[in-house]
Amino acid sequence: MNETLPDTIRPIRFDGGALYLLDQRRLPGAMRENRYDDAGDVAAAIRDMVVRGAPAIGIAAAFAVVLACRSAASAAAADWRAQVERAIAQLEASRPTAVNLFWALDRMRAVLAACPSADEAEVRTLAEAQRMLAADIAANRRLGAAGAELIEPGRAVLTHCNTGSLATGGFGTALGVIRSAWAQGRIREVFADETRPWLQGARLTAWELLHDGIPVHLLCEGAAASLLRSGQVGWVIVGADRIAANGDTANKIGTYGLALLAREHGVRFMVAAPVSTIDFDTADGSGIPIEMRPESEVLELGGRAIAPPGARGWNPAFDVTPARLIDAIVTELGVVQQPDRARLAALREPIAAQ
Ligand code: MRU
């Protein structure tokens, strides 16, 4: 069944000892890959949004660790562990909110701990990063199918930011649900917020959906209230950068507002994310670090000033939606309806068994 789903984009690949990232800053104008041989350059690429989206950031960082091992191996460095750890620390400092980054780097640390040499570390970390990439795509296909089952045919959906192939290893989380549901004829129309200030919705989601043959209507965030009041939309479907143990969910700035609007208008609200996005060590949303990005991202558009000199910008990249506003958290290990601490904890055992 899955083979027939529209799914043709892959943002991350490792080939011939180098990492290739589709440069998402250039989309939709140009589809160009950048080549990376150095872990520090990958950390900069994550910070600068060449690659973005929580799972994609984690996977890119995992491959960056391979690059660090490769450099240490080719230099026959006696202190190879310290060199690789420095690279990991640099990657950890790239973006603070998406927990998948820290999850992926912890997994790489565990692999490194069992390696006797840098050569061996290069081989084993590469195998682990490739496994992570394949597992992410498989997880997205599973959660996509599970989320689609919740959608009764005949209504539209609204999504926010980009949660698709571009934001993951492939297929996507919220967009994975939308891909699956669209293929099953359950969705009448897809609406996507443009998602200021980076315009992930306009530049990436619209491009990705059209690339895979799914029509889309774009709207300014300010139009979401009217859309939800119109009665056309059955579900708002979003991804997540970090889900706290009680279900509070950090996602792209504007998500919280959408959840409030959805509740007000009787529209259901779905968060779709792999279990690697759940942070059981953070009790609730107040403990999630929220990245503040440069003011210039708000004050400029495409490099041109849109505000008068002297105006200041306020630019949190994420906000936190309280669990009580979420109807379902959809993961590859199951759907948690009306999420709370106890219901989410039920996912812990299967995660530990993985
Ligand atoms: O700043 P970004 O583009 O990295 O933010 C991405 C998001 O907020 C996505 O909605 C989230 O990572 C889920 S992606 C599967």
UniProtKB/TrEMBL annotation:
Short name of any one Pfam family annotated for the protein: IF-2B
Family recorded in the similarity comment: Belongs to the EIF-2B alpha/beta/delta subunits family. MtnA subfamily.
EC number(s) per entry: 5.3.1.23
Entry keyword set: Amino-acid biosynthesis, Isomerase, Methionine biosynthesis
The protein's name: Methylthioribose-1-phosphate isomerase
Protein species of origin: Thioalkalivibrio paradoxus ARh 1
Residues of the site described as Transition state stabilizer: 161
Molecular function via GO: S-methyl-5-thioribose-1-phosphate isomerase activity
Pathway(s) the chain acts in: Amino-acid biosynthesis; L-methionine biosynthesis via salvage pathway; L-methionine from S-methyl-5-thio-alpha-D-ribose 1-phosphate: step 1/6
Binding site for substrate: 52-54, 95, 200, 251-252
Entry's transmembrane regions: none
GO biological process: L-methionine salvage from methylthioadenosine
Protein function: Catalyzes the interconversion of methylthioribose-1-phosphate (MTR-1-P) into methylthioribulose-1-phosphate (MTRu-1-P). Also catalyzes the interconversion of 5-deoxyribose 1-phosphate and 5-deoxyribulose 1-phosphate. Part of a bifunctional DHAP-shunt salvage pathway for SAM by-products.
Alphabetized InterPro entries for the sequence: IF-2B-related, IF-M1Pi, IF_2B-like_C, Initiation_fac_2B_a/b/d, M1Pi_N, NagB/RpiA_transferase-like
Lineage: Bacteria, Pseudomonadati, Pseudomonadota, Gammaproteobacteria, Chromatiales
Catalytic activity: 5-deoxy-alpha-D-ribose 1-phosphate = 5-deoxy-D-ribulose 1-phosphate; 5-(methylsulfanyl)-alpha-D-ribose 1-phosphate = 5-(methylsulfanyl)-D-ribulose 1-phosphate
Enzyme class: isomerase
Residue positions of the active site: 241
